[in-house]
Input
Amino acid sequence: MKGVTIVDHPLVQHKLTVLRDKTTSTRTFRDATREISMLIGYEVTRDLPLELVEIETPVAAARSAVLAGKKLVFAPILRSGMGMLDGMLELAPSARVAHIGLYRDPQTLGAVEYYYKTPADVAERLVIVLDPMLATGHTAVAAIDRLKEQGAANIRFACLLASRAGVDNLRGAHSDVAVWTAAVDDELNDHGYIVPGLGDAGDRLYGTR
Ligand code: URA
Output
């Protein structure tokens, strides 16, 4: 699938199975989400630009690489995107955070905005949108629409699990936005849930069901 990276590292695939298993406790689900998010984040940031700086090691002068330019914005889509944030921040602790509050209307499955707050210079940064589930793609498309309205031009999307339809909808609306995921499942059910999926990521993260 063009523009989609499936992170097939064994640790990622193992943790995805822990997430899929309905007997996994809330605590383990939350821990596994943090861990798998960090591993996926490692791949999402693999090609970040570097520049050389002069430093002194305890032994000699050296030219060594650091991240170049403006840094990252992580943009979790509330509420389940928050489950991915800590793992991402372990990789890039200085990153800025944008909060995007969208919920899915259960009837239409369309995205409804209730909160939106981003760093002012979002247009100059790489924005990594976080949502564990890329299901219908409606929420992802609405979040990216909103970020682009604000001038964001360099956007990536990180999730734990995607559906084929979600990938098609996101990439159909925003072909410049690449997707990283641990797997792509074939089906969506009538409620817009990914099948076999892992259930409601927000409920499983926060123990609300
Ligand atoms: N949101 C979820 O939490 N799970 C799904 O399967 C689809 C959307």
